[in-house]
Amino acid sequence: MIMMTLDQFWKFLNTVRKKSFTEIILCLFFLVLILAYYCVNVFHILPCMYQLPSVLYLTHMLSLTFMVFNLLANFLAVMYADSSVIGRLLTISKYTSKEDITYCYVCQCDVPLRCWHCDICNVCILTRDHHCTFSTTCVGHYNRRYFLWFLLYLSVASFYEIILISYYTYYKVTIKFSDLMVLVPFQSVLTGFHLTAGEIFVVLLTLNFIAVTISSLLLIYHLDKVCKGLVCHEKQESNYDFGLMRNLETVFGEKWYITWISPFIESKLPYNGIDWQSHVNQYKTK
């Protein structure tokens, strides 16, 4: 469960301040874009399509609100959940040899298996998967769950948006072939940003097509890794493949089947992200 104390909040803000200017701009652009789409839908598209109040309007509004809530909440949870080795006691169990522990000269601490140093975050990350530029943080042991649900809701919301905007433009907006010229680089600059309604909705549809394509491909790729017990750094190794159900629990926690409802649902991870060899040995003896 995501509980933020005042000290943790300041730590989160300090972490964000250390990010590069480009990463912060991309992150803010993404957040603003999501909220802008939501406002356009709730305050313009849906009222034009359905009478207020109506069952269809409320159904669409509640569906959009649920998706946007999970999209933003999981996105922020990826940034907030700390998967670094800082402040965590690294232990060597009876299953783990000293050869499994390496020393990071940058972080000046011992790091376990499946832990890699991120040159961008400048810290070692437990069960590091990859560095996410949009969330300005690394995806690892404690925030991988939120990243995957974020991708899922981004895919679903973008596809939902394509259907909604397409239906609206079919009945309410006339799109001419010349409106497609807005997609040509620098065309908007040359026209002085005087966009017609048709050009605006061409841009909205294009952004959603890009979003649903990229997020869906990323979701398929990362889910495939999860099902095989791998992270992005690992290829087709099977050392950490504990079976499909256990692999899902490793990422989404013991209550993996309901974590899609909200990132605030507490779902304890079965492993600590440190004694991986211990978990492998215990699994093999079962």
Q: What Rg is obtained from the alpha carbons, in whole angstroms? A: 22 Å
Query: Helicity, in percent?
Result: 40-55%
Q: Which strands sit side by side, in order, in the main sheet?
A: 1-2
Task: Give the total of beta strands.
Answer: 6
Residues in β-strands, percent: 5-15%
Query: What form results from the Cα inertia axes?
Result: elongated
What would you say this structure looks like, in words?
This protein is mainly α and 286 residues long. The chain is 52% helix and 6% strand. The protein is built from eight helices and six strands. The strands form three sheets. The chain has a two-stranded antiparallel ribbon with strand order 1-2. It starts with 5 loop residues before the first helix and ends with a helix. The model has no long low-confidence stretch (mean pLDDT 83).
